[in-house]
Amino acid sequence: MSTKSFVNLPVKDLRASIAFFTALGFRFDPDFTDDNAGCLVLTDDSYVMLLVEAYFTRFTGKAVADTAGSSEVIVALGLDSRADVDRVADAAPAAGARPAAQAAEQSPMYTRSFYDLDGHQWELFSLDSAGAGQG
């Protein structure tokens, strides 16, 4: 079965969020980006829709979680290598992110985390294929 995945996240300032993720090396699909939404492309089949809060609540009918005092999601992205994890994680603070946790290495996984401009937690990881399955 072929599927496409869309994770929808509320954002306060769409332009700032697009600039933030662009600084981390991500790209946006202009066909699905407008004043209410930015379509961040992860892969050909995986996307993150950054939705202006007022637009987001039209779908949920609920208030947006206050990420200053609660957690609502961890977006985990598997990258090709430890160097890729470090490249994105190192760019995040300069673009305005806050660190979420120290780098962690639990064979066969290496992770680094940050909070984006809206407090959503992102966890970047790479798997050492030689150590995978030794769990």
Task: Walk me through the structure.
It is a single chain. The protein has 135 residues and is of the alpha/beta class. The protein has a single domain (5-127), classed as 2,3-Dihydroxybiphenyl 1,2-Dioxygenase, domain 1 (Roll), CATH 3.10.180.10. The chain is built from three helices and eight strands; from the N terminus they run E-H-E-E-E-H-E-H-E-E-E. It has helices spanning 14-23, 53-60, 82-95; strands at 5-11, 27-28, 37-41, 46-52, 74-78, 98-106, 109-115, 121-127. It has a four-stranded mixed β-sheet with strand order 1-4-3-2. Strand 2 (27-28) and strand 3 (37-41) form a beta hairpin. The longest helix has 14 residues, at 82-95. It is globular. The protein starts with a strand and ends in an 8-residue tail after the last strand.
**Low-pLDDT residue spans:** 131-135
Number of helices: 3
Question: Strand sequence of the main sheet, in spatial order?
Answer: 1-4-3-2
Strand content: 35-45%
Write down the CATH class: Alpha Beta
Mean pLDDT: 92
According to CATH, the fold-level topology is: 2,3-Dihydroxybiphenyl 1,2-Dioxygenase, domain 1
State the share of residues found in helices, binned by percent. Answer: 10-25%
Determine Rg (CA atoms, Å): 15 Å
Shape: globular
Distance between the termini: 28 Å
Indicate how many domains the architecture comprises: 1
Quantity of strands, as a count: 8
CATH architecture: Roll
Q: Which structural class should the secondary elements be placed in?
A: alpha/beta
The CATH superfamily turns out to be: 2,3-Dihydroxybiphenyl 1,2-Dioxygenase, domain 1
Task: List the helices and strands in order.
Answer: EHEEEHEHEEE
Largest sheet: 4 strands, mixed
